[in-house]
Each structure stands twice: as C-alpha cells, then as structure tokens.
Design a protein that fits this description.
heterodimer, A: alpha+beta, Alpha-Beta Plaits, Dna Ligase, domain 1, six-stranded antiparallel sheet, B: mainly beta
Chain lengths: ~400, ~80
C-alpha cells in the first residue's frame, strides 16, 4: 500500500450545485433565495436562501415560513446529470485516479501527477475551477490534504468558491476544537450520542478511551477514533461493477393507498432497471426494494438470489415477493427498485431456457434503444405517469417535481 | 409549449452548435446570450438544450439530432 501520509488528495465539490445550475440558466434568479424542489421538500437551495436558514431536506412549507421571498424552482435532474457528466469528464486531464463521490463531488489522487503542475496543488485546483466556471458559469470549492477525510473537511471549510489546503502538521490544531459533526460520516444522531458522552469536539473524541468507543459502537468506534485524529486509510478508487447498482425510483403524485397501483409502478421500474442492466452488459443477483410512506418513513428490503438475472419480469418477481411482505394500509409516496451484485453478462443459452423470451427482450431493447424509452411498453403503464428519474449509487435521491 | 422553430446556427469547432437567431410566431429573435446548455440522451442520439436570451426574454430551445428539428420548449419573462 502507498504511504498514506505522503499522498495529495483533492476533493472537488460544486457549490449549491442544483441551485447554481438554475441561477446560471435563468439570470433572473441570480442573487435571489431559491430552492430547487417540489411541492413538499427542498432538494437544494442557493446560498442566498441558506442565509435565511433554508436547508436541503426541509419541507417547502417550513422553508417559505422562514424565507417568504423564497422562489421554489422545479428540479431538472437531466440538466444536473448532464452538467455533472461534463465536469467529471474534465477530471482525467488531471489524474487517472478518480473517485466520483456524488453527482457534484469527486476525489482525485494527484500524488503522481502533481509534478506536472509545478508541484503546486492549489495551482491545479484553480485551473480546474476556472475551467468549470468558464464552461458553465458555476463555482466549485476544492479541499486538498493528505487523505480523503481531511480533503473533504478542507472543501467544506473552503466553501463557497474557494480552495483550502490542509497539511498534516496543521491537522491537530484544526481538529482540536472542531465540532464532531463537521467530519463527514458523523451525522445528527451520532452527534447526539457523542454529546451524551460529553464529547463535543474532535479533540475530545480523539482523547476518549478507545475501549469505551468500541464497546458502544463496535468496530465503528475504532473508526471514529481515527477520524478524530485525522487518520483515514481509504484510497481514491473508481467504483467497480461489484459495488455498483442500477436502480430507479418514482415519487407517486399524491401518494397511493391502492397497492395494485403501486405494483404497476413497481413493474414499470423493474422493466426500466432490467433494460439498463442489459444495456450495460451486466447481470445482477441482489434486488433491493425501497418504500417511502406519506409520513416520510423510508425503508428498504433486500433479497439475494442464487442465479443472476437481467429481465424485468424476473426482477419484478423478486420485488413483488418483498413488496407483498410490507405493512399494508399506509399510503405509499415513493417506490424504488435496484439491482446490485453486478457482474459482466456472458449469456449462453442453456437447454430448457426460454429462448423466445430472450429474443423478445433483445427485440424490445433494440426498438427502445433506437427510438427512445417507452417506444414499446406494457399497456398497463398507461394507467400511471410514465417518466421516472434514475438513481445510481452516486446520484442523490430526491423528491422532485417530474 | 414545444413549438417547432427555424434556427440559424454557427458550427463552432470549440463550442459545437451555436444558435444565433430563431424565428417564432413570425418574429426573428437574435440571440444575445446563451446562458446555459446541456444534453439529454434520447435513444441512440441526444437532444441538445440551450437557454438563450434576446435581451428581453429567456427561451429554452432544443435540437433533436436524429430528426434534425429545433423546438421552442419554454419562455420566461426576464
């Protein structure tokens, strides 16, 4: 393994990404508090809105209460995904070691390539930021350090529209009085638990007896200790098919109590997932069903199979198995399905396999690939809204107007 | 909205297609600024989206590469 202490890791993080895209596209929104979202929830907001206390995940009602001038803009995931793809395509110009962390963040390991940039990471960061601003008119912040954890911390400290380089020698001083929830991976609930132990800062967490942390949090207690002292051995790695999944989800307008309707949405989603899996040349063996009720309670159920599958109806069969075991009676506002445990498909027809079905799927895929999604679709889909947005394991799952 | 429109375009090596004017409801709109552009996959090809301003209003126009059709998708008062 490489010497972790001599690495140079960079995190590029777009500033208020969705809101920035909207404000750049629509100049009349610039300088104003805007929230990207739907009727119910704020998916993202501009810095102008953040000054009022508006936050992602907040209900739109609550956001409008604290910021009456807030302009709510419907989201457009295709626009953000397209922008994200173009930005991510710039990154190999700086290093081949890239990990796309989310739709608006990526880690770059520039240890071996920094020599081509005057050995100056800030110079490299500014070059990339200028390119993004020139192409899109939006800003990104960059954090640079010796590992991913501190690079992410540096990026959050650099926001908005800045660059921060934290060297190893400076880490102790920065972490000493830093609130624990400033570290990536420590959320609100964990912060409350740590506060109950008398731990408010990273300095206190780093000094807290490791044995007690392990007793309370298991193996994660050890990780917490290392995080508090600025240690992170995680490498920048490209996502491989094994740790990837392909999925789709859909918010059902108004929610639905008739589970037969929910099943039609589920079938639709399963067919979409099947198509994308086949198009990618993979097969998978773990089906995950995600359900959100009207009260926002969200959960997932999973089933791993012996055989690999890629046909929508096979995915649906497993999804239905999981769906029919959930609590009934509550209104469902979102269904999602994903297939994971992906491996490259090498389809060989075995004796007894339904070759007609395989040929049918290939024909269906050919038509829909050429002329667009839904050129041929099941008749039952006319009962429901058709367009859905996809999730992959780096896109945020959002409740957006579609 | 989605009205088919006629568009004058410059083919720019660095920036790809650059719309410079379009005709909508018999009025010619000269494009002063392209505020944003993005592309969305459709079948084997792409739909190119442009947000453009004539100095008075903002318009979203799209180009379907397969069918070679330009459309006006949205208008906004600035």
């Amino acid at each position: 393994m490489k010497d972790c202490n001599n690495k140079i890791i960079m995190l590029i993080d777009m500033d208020a990404f969705f809101a920035s895209c909207e404000q750049q596209e629509k100049p009349f929104l610039r300088g104003k508090p805007i929230a990207v979202g739907g009727k119910n929830v704020v998916a993202a907001c501009s810095y102008e809105a953040k000054r009022y206390g508006v936050k992602s995940g907040m209900s739109t009602f609550e956001a409008l209460k604290i910021c009456p001038d807030l302009i709510v803009v419907p989201g457009d995931m295709e626009k953000y995904a397209s922008t994200s793809r173009e930005i991510m395509r710039m990154l190999p110009d700086y290093t081949p070691e890239i990990e796309i962390f989310s739709i608006d963040e990526a880690f770059l390991d520039i240890t071996s390539t920094i020599k081509f940039w005057n050995n100056d990471p800030v110079f490299l960061a500014e070059h990339l930021r200028r390119r993004i601003r020139k192409r899109f008119g939006i800003t990104a912040s960059v954090g640079i350090s010796y590992n991913k954890l501190i690079a992410k911390l540096a990026a959050s400290m650099a926001k908005p529209d800045g660059v921060k380089y934290i060297e190893k020698n400076d880490t102790h001083e920065i972490l000493e009085n830093l609130p624990v929830d400033e570290l990536s991976g420590i959320g609100r609930k964990l912060k409350i638990k740590l506060n109950e132990l008398g731990i408010a800062t990273c300095g206190e967490l780093g000094k807290f007896p490791v044995k007690i942390l392990r007793r309370l949090f298991g193996q994660y207690g050890m990780i917490l200790h290392y995080m508090a002292i600025g240690e992170d051995k995680g490498e920048v790695k490209e996502l491989t098919p094994k740790n990837r999944s392909i999925g789709h989800s859909r918010t059902i307008p108004g929610g639905v109590k008739d589970y037969n309707i929910a099943r039609i949405y589920l079938l639709r989603l399963c067919e979409m997932v099947g198509r994308r899996v086949r198009k990618s040349g993979f097969v998978g063996r773990t089906v995950t069903l995600t359900i959100r009720y009207d009260d926002f309670f969200t959960f997932s159920r999973q089933k791993s199979l012996y055989d690999y599958i890629d046909a929508g109806e096979d995915i649906y069969k497993e999804a239905l198995y999981l769906f029919d075991r959930i609590e009934t009676g509550k209104s469902i506002r979102l269904v999602g399905i994903s297939l994971s445990g992906l491996v490259k498909a090498s389809r060989q027809i075995t004796i007894g396999e339904n070759t007609d079905n395989i040929r049918f799927l290939h024909a269906l895929d050919s038509v829909n690939n050429r002329y667009g999604e839904d050129t041929i679709k099941r008749a039952s889909f006319s009962l429901i809204d058709v367009p859905v947005k996809s999730i992959s394991n780096f896109e945020k799952h959002l409740d957006l107007k579609l | 909205m989605k009205k088919e429109i006629k568009v004058g375009v410059i083919f720019d090596r660095d920036n790809g297609l650059r719309p410079v004017w379009f005709i909508y409801m018999n009025n010619k709109h000269n494009i002063k600024t392209i505020t944003y552009r993005w592309r969305v996959k459709k079948g084997l090809s792409y739909i190119e989206h442009y947000s453009v301003s004539d100095g008075q209003n903002l318009y979203e126009i799209t180009y379907d590469r397969i069918n070679t059709i330009w459309k006006l998708e949205n208008t906004y008062d600035i």
